[in-house]
Amino acid sequence: MRSPSRPAVIGAITVLALTSCGTGTDSGGGSVTLTIAANSISGGKNSESADWITKWVIPEFQKAHPNVKVTFQPSGVDDEQYKTKISLDLKSKTGADVIDLDGIWVGEFAQAGYIKPLAEVGGAAVEQWEGWSQIPQAVQGLGIFDGKKYGLPQGTDGRVLFYNKTLFKKAGLPEPWQPTSWQEIIDAGTRLKAAGVPVPIQLNAGTAMGEATTMQGVLPLLAGAGSEIYTAGKWTGDSQAMRDALGLYQQIYGGSGLGDPKLQQEAKGRDKSFARFAEGEIGILAESDYFWRSVVEPTAGVAPMKDRDQVVGYTKIPAKRPGGGIRGQDHVSMSGGAVRVLNPFSKNPGPAWELLAFMHSAAATKSELAGQVRISSRTDVNDEVLTADPMLRYIAEEVLPITAYRPGVAVYPQVSTALQEATAAVVSGGSAAEASAAYQTKLEGLVGGAANIGG
Hints:
The protein has helices at residues 47-64, 79-91, 106-111, 118-122, 124-127, 137-140, 165-170, 182-194, 211-224, 240-253, 261-265, 269-278, 289-295, 308-311, 349-359, 362-369, 379-385, 390-399, 412-427, 432-447, and strands at residues 14-18, 32-38, 68-74, 98-102, 144-145, 148-149, 151-156, 159-164, 199-202, 230-231, 234-236, 282-288, 312-315, 317-318, 331-332, 337-342, 453-454.
């Protein structure tokens, strides 16, 4: 499953099955066969991932492990279909031994008993792995559930505020711009409106934009108000943080003219917001680095801006007030991404861990990027490959250390829809308080009652 801003690697489902006894060495004449099955196929879905597995991972791993045979079984199905297949395999204690999952599935699989913490499966070698020191703690969170490491994170992303420097100059606003509170965002929007900017602020809202509303809008605002949507087994309901987040939507869309309500309700509203930003009609837009590298990218973007590097600014999302964000932070973000996990029912967990660790080594990570400038989970790789792109380096260095992730539990997609509906109610003219109360009612029905909802 891919979040709205993830690169294609997120959808790549890599699965490794150990099919014979052994330890990966030929101490007794035995051998181990590792089968890599991925939801990717050369020339088709996630082709780059399939090519990386067959042309780099397999030959390179076999060079270092001559008594290990690695084969690849490609496929190319819908991510949800693949998720179902993996679930059925693990439920029957069969199937793959190293599995590539979207991070949003980790908690769900852990709660079902389908996966276990890496160290419980792979042994002491897991905690001794050199890669942990290269993956920022916040990024490790992508594979952590209930405080335990279930998976190794792959590439990730981060949310920021993008702004048009030309429009900022027209409005007499500073550049570079780094707001320290929500009020400073509203103040900048007011100045942009006075300068004649058609859409001063674009904050994704409503159900038409789907998960983009939740990831680019509600969740960062909740984090900025000091709350996460799910923590310590409780969901955030009709709380002060929720009312604050929806209150900012009301300030932008509730008649102030700072945002365009119609954009939030159109089927292609998000795409139109991209185009309008590229055309110089939107002043501030909340998005992930996907917007920079795939939307306004000067040559191959969805809405290319030839002068992107000169015109588009980017800045961290502030907490409601300094120090008011989660973990006492001044600024916040949200990230998505994929992880690889170990099958707890593997007959050969040692070799499986060796292969998993190899696939997340610096050399493998650089090979998987295939020359593309993208954010990896490893600091050492990012230091090397992001030097040519200051924006992505900014995400890696400034944003990832303060980021957070969606809860990987089964009911989350339904909760996300309820959040989108709450923003839609505000955009349609309702109050933040009313929308938050209605959300609370829906949430109780989704998560088993008020006992599972926090303040």
